[in-house]
Amino acid sequence: MAYARGRGAAPGATPPARPEGSLLWLHAGGPGSARALSALATRLKIQRPELTLLITGEPDHAPEGALRADLPGESPAEVAAFVAHWRPQLGFWTGQELRPALLQKLQQAGTRLVLLDARDVPWTSPAPSWVPDPTAATLQFFDRICPVDEPARRRLRRAGVEDSTMPTLGPLTDSAPPLDCSTRLYEEMSGVLTGRPIWLAAKLRSAQEAEEVLHAHKRAVRLAHRLMLVLVPATHDLAAAVAEVARDSGLRLCAWEAGEMPDENTQVLVTEDASELGLWYRLAPVAFLGGSLVNGHGGEDPMEAAAHGIALLYGPNVGRHLPAYSRLAEAGAARIVRDFDSLAGALSQLVAPDRAAAMAHAGWDVITQGAELTDEMIALACGWLDEAEIA
């Protein structure tokens, strides 16, 4: 704090106006955390529609209607201005960087603070190395701390955090509900495809990626001749290019948007966009997630697919969602493939229903674990908001 007092205030942009009423502040302190925070805040706002949302940090994904702002510097003037302007009733913080001056000021102003996704890695702060480590004192400003696992809990204990402050264990994950699907259409297609092994290539991002997937399918059908592939481009703009690649493959096609229905001879079902992805996630026990075999896209969010109970395959280019893929891969719910050869090999193994089911069950465990933590945080936040309104 002595170091912070010696720093001058840097000029900053004028923040947007603060609406009246309660405000929830979300700080996304690392890549990928904003989406999970967004899911948590969106569910909380359903119960408290009057709640204003503010997000800072690395907001790669923000809740609809949320305000955005930059974190202030650590000088007393900057911190005081931020707290006086926003006056948050609640704050959810993620990331391993701590801001001692800001968090102390918020705690003094009565903001209830929760630290989520605390990991077994060193904490950092803006102070230089010659300043005494502020970690232990700064962690005391949080009302609740949620470590992701036992090693993280032990690190927090060594920093002086009481067990009563961290009753919840587990990572914060995006626990969005499954995509919508027509029950009538699902029942009809289930009857049509009874007994046929199916796999899905979801949200393909280029004709090149579609070509790789079709090469893998050709190899896989040599061992499972009744295997059918469902091709789903990420956008309608890609539909023509993906369809052309499929026609050039020499495989027997079914054009879904043209009103065709698959039969015993169909090898590939081609769609024009992802509008009915909820149907295909329910019908296919195995899915390859697009935007991952070819550079430049960063992959698709795997939690959406995992919420449907499906075994996941993905390529190496998933930088935008790496924490989520790593979590699913560690649980045995997702498997990386490097090219169409390894994709074909993985498919040949996962055609066996028991193997695909084991991966799908592991993914469901990850989703359920995240949902339990989200439910607990929503209940905690609602309780604190009720207390603030009574006071």
Automatic annotation (TrEMBL):
Tagged with keyword Membrane: yes
Taxonomic source organism: Alloyangia mangrovi
Region (Disordered): 1-22
Family: Belongs to the glycosyltransferase group 1 family.
Reactions catalysed according to its record: lipid IVA (E. coli) + CMP-3-deoxy-beta-D-manno-octulosonate = alpha-Kdo-(2->6)-lipid IVA (E. coli) + CMP + H(+)
Residue ranges with Low complexity bias: 1-12
Name of the protein: 3-deoxy-D-manno-octulosonic acid transferase
One Pfam family from the record: Glycos_transf_N
